[in-house]
Amino acid sequence: MPLERDMQPRSLFEKVWDAHVVRPETDDTPAVLYIDLHLVHEVTSPQAFDMLRARGLRVRRPDLTLATMDHSTPTVPIKSLKDIEVVSEPAAAKQIRQLEANCKEFGIELRGFFSGQRGVVHVIGPELGATQPGKTIVCGDSHTSTHGAFGALAFGIGTTEVGHVLATQCLLQRKPKTLAIELAGRPGPGVTAKDLILRIIGTIGVAGGTGHVIEYRGEAISALSMEQRMTVCNMSIEAGARAGMIAPDDVTYEYMAGRPLAPKGKDWDAALERWRKLPSDPGARFDREVRIDVSRLAPMVTFGTNPGMVVEIDQPVPESGDIAFKKALDYMRVEAGKPLLGTPVDVVFIGSCTNGRLGDIRDAARILKGRKVADNVRLLVVPGSDQTKREAEAEGLDEIIRAAGGEWREPGCSMCIGMNGDIVPPGKLAVSTSNRNFEGRQGPGARTILASPITAAAAAVKGVVADPRELLG
Amino acid sequence: MEPIRTIRSKTVVLPFDDIDTDQIIPARFLTTTTKDGLGQHLFSNWRYADDGTPRPDFALNRPEAKGATILVAGRNFGCGSSREHAPWALVDYGFRAVVSSEFADIFRNNALKNGLLPVIVDAETHAWLLANPGAEITVDLESTTLTLPDGRAVSFPIDRFSRYCLMNGLDQLGFLLEQRDAIAEYERRVQA
């Protein structure tokens, strides 16, 4: 049987899946899939730990479990943990305390406050070198798809499944289908990874990837840095996909070398040999294939209330008779038939697991340097992690942001999800580098335009939705 | 968990496609550390005016919606975040089934683990249900059929393992825990 399997060309996804099947699926039961890395945060874990206690279970592999707090944490500086009670709502403070207590009780290492390694869970996993090619990675968070940028199979799960993984290090899964998305051509200056993924979601739709694992491939993907690849894979879930993957290559290995949790010495050499076998074999079959030419792509902005409602920045908002579409335009106070260019903006948010990494902050700083944030705009820049913050400050990016009139904050999910007090006021319009423009996502009544860090920074400077290419110089 | 066999109810209809989990339960209610009491926040931004009073025109607030345990929603229900608070809120409110033509993957998985039945129907049946709020329908898990008021029955797909667990009121962890030996064997194999 192994011989026959070896002869069949396999995709990257199939190779990772096959290597983690503890018990194959049958008509009656799903596959038992082993999980190599379980990321845990404060919002989706408390009820799972309660379940363990109620059933007298331990965490099977605390060594494969990595915890941090990010969703409900404050982004104002704190001097001691006592400050959390002061700056946060009681429920958020309790959640943070509970994660600390749960990690202690179950022997899980916590990258908490003052560890110097805290941050958005999908930023710190790669930064620490815990995210590696060929791994299965899960977290009680849908943006776990981010880690697929390394050629890992990474997907979000619910809290019941968080409990399953804590107790057994395994999940019950039906094998998903595969979807290859090839991006042909190379886009011009000012068009970033964020614009690529928004274009993909606009093309296949917010349910276009349902039931599938996407493999992104093609010239425009290979040319991306690891951080940019993470931006693409991060939003796979916004196309409905379980996961998004990119084949590991030298860009991947260069990023990983020397990271604290990456293999070292002989182990590194052995890992490299394994990883180089992961990319899809020539002739590997996918359930679906989509090809998109991105050579003439412009910066993208969303106009509606889901990430599939997106246009090139200089193009008019489309028209449609669909009731959900009309409802979305009413909510956004956007007119069909006109471009968004020139629309006044109230808030600009740069951060999140989509665009809160060093390269994103550099991109924003490029636009902000020597310029001022418009009087009508509040600019909030939130680094993805403690490490990102240190690195950005070492380059003086915080100074550029402050000098422009922006706020430079402590790491966390912040205004992407609005759980920590950082919200867009009712009715106000934000240009945000985050991943969801759902109604009220950034606060009740808040209106969101999703865009890249340079498009967001351009809006901050101009005070209106603006084409960043005019400011790149 | 209560075993599920047959659910008979009038429907409540939210006819919009792509209803995301931020609408089902906004993030500001996720600072809870339990599963309890989330029903009061279900569809909070749509259900209540800014001053906290119920909006009379919202489907769930209409008198005829009282007591309904089946929600009919537009295509791609439950897209967005992985928050299990979404099915917890629906179940706590009193829903036992959601009918749509398509569900987001993570929501569907979460629903199945909480005794909330995601019922996928064909486009024609879906369109009829969307156009006829309050219709009295029956969802039968044993025969995997949805029966319309005129007696016409349509079958719906459901994973056999999930169906078995739901019909017997079992949670899925029991099965996983029984795999201990296979899991230990796997760990030995990959470490070798």
Strand tally of chain B = 7
**Topology order of chain B in helix (H) and strand (E) letters:** EHHEHEHEHEEEHHH
Query: For the report, how would you describe the main beta sheet of chain A?
Result: 5 strands, parallel
Share of helix among residues of chain B? 25-40%
User: In what order do the strands lie side by side in the largest sheet of chain A?
Assistant: 5-4-3-6-7
The CATH homologous superfamily of the largest domain in chain A corresponds to Aconitase, domain 3
Question: What's the architecture of chain B, going by CATH?
Answer: Alpha-Beta Barrel
Oligomer: heterodimer
Question: Which CATH architecture of the largest domain in chain A is right?
Answer: 2-Layer Sandwich
Decide which structural class fits the backbone of chain B.
alpha/beta
Notes on the structure:
- The complex is a heterodimer of chains A (473) and B (192).
- With 473 residues, chain A is α/β, with parallel strands linked by helices.
- Chain A has 3 domains: 2-173, Aconitase, domain 3 (2-Layer Sandwich), CATH 3.30.499.10; 177-246 and 274-293, Aconitase, Domain 2 (3-Layer(aba) Sandwich); 302-468, Aconitase, domain 3 (2-Layer Sandwich), CATH 3.30.499.10.
- Helix content of chain A is 34%, strand content 16%.
- Chain A contains 18 helices and 19 strands.
- Chain A has a 5-stranded parallel beta sheet with strand order 5-4-3-6-7.
- The termini of chain A are far apart.
- The model of chain B has no long low-confidence stretch (mean pLDDT 97).
- Chain B has a 7-stranded mixed beta sheet.
- In chain B, strand 2 (70-73), helix 3 and strand 3 form a beta-alpha-beta unit.
- At the A-B interface, helix 3, helix 5, helix 7 and helix 13 of A face helix 4, helix 6, helix 7 and helix 8 of B.
Concise synopsis of the structure shown:
The complex is a heterodimer of chains A (473) and B (192). Chain A folds into three domains: 2-173, 2-Layer Sandwich (Aconitase, domain 3); 177-246 and 274-293, 3-Layer(aba) Sandwich (Aconitase, Domain 2), CATH 3.40.1060; 302-468, Aconitase, domain 3 (2-Layer Sandwich).
